[in-house]
Design a protein that fits this description.
This protein has 355 residues and is of the alpha/beta class. It has one domain (31-344): Glycosidases (TIM Barrel, Alpha-Beta Barrel). The protein contains 9 helices and 13 strands. The chain has helices spanning 2-23, 55-62, 91-103, 122-128, 149-160, 183-195, 246-250, 272-292, 325-344; strands spanning 36-41, 77-80, 83-85, 108-112, 137-142, 166-167, 171-177, 202-207, 217-218, 238-240, 301-305, 308-309, 314-315. α8 runs parallel beside α9. The longest helix is centred in the first third of the chain and has 22 residues, at 2-23.
Length: 355
Amino acid sequence: MEEEMNDMTKLLPMMMGVLFACCSASVGEENRPRAIVGAIRWDAWHGDAEGPASPGLAVERSLGPKHWHYRLPFYAKVVGENKVEARANTQAIMDQEITYASNAQLDYWAFLTYDPMSSMNIGLRLYLSSPLKSKVEFCVICHHIRKTPEEIDRLVGYMKDPQYVKVLGDRPLVYVFQCDAQKAFFDALTKAMGEAGLKRPYLVNMGNTKDGIGFDAVSSYVGTDRNSWTQGRRVIPSISTGGDRSPRVENPVPWEGGGAGKPVEVGPLDSPEKTAANIAGRVASALEWNRNNPDAGEANAVIIYAWNEFDEGGWICPTLSEGTGRLDAIHRVLTAAEKRAVQSKPEGDGLKPAP
């Protein structure tokens, strides 16, 4: 009996792993009870990964002064009165981020693209290597593009991943923001996708892109209000969680030319609870807009600015000061939306209520 119990003890982790994989598998497009909600990832939080000129050190300097410490992510360390470390460059931290996002029922992350060997790509690499990645889907925001066949192969490889976000009958969702790639690049990408057995991309213009590209919809990187979603266009609603860039004014970052600029004029800070409620309200508004505008919102998706733009003022990632408050508020909205959608559907449509 003792030997059998030992054998069962050895098998239990394997059995639980299989059960977890089954329960956490990505929800198919046909089974989504509401619009999918994602958040932008800007992964500069990696310390000195590129030496003294690393973007990771620049953003740590931005958040170094004590009055900005309330923005520090959960993985940050205060190492001096005006010095911090905010480094999400380990698998353990990425796995925890995935868990936080999944617990909030966030559907996907949209990763900005950078050179595959750049430190700015560490976040995406850690996501792709995570044993938990099936809990949150992903897509790309074409940003820094190399405009080479190798880059096209890389993007196609991402889109072939089972966790890549698909909309409108299995079309890979692709955002484009401040990207200097021409129409020819996206034509070549579409052709390569077809050759790989993928449907053509659902291209979404987030702004500052080249002319002539056949976009399917528009959105925004920093978020817009509801009035801008109803302009006779196809839209993926984008909502903001904040936009005070004063830390970068106080401690400029090198990629913005090092100029001090002017602080953003902001009044007294709202309480964490009020801020979380405001963000959740915007998510609810975007979900409602998608329900009421199925043609303009054909992709049935929402994008949030942002998961981790801490020094620019937009985040929903848990912080040292607020914990999971923002995600908790979003979770309540998404849970309610799923229950409402399931209750309004006729029997036999395959939808299941959220757990």
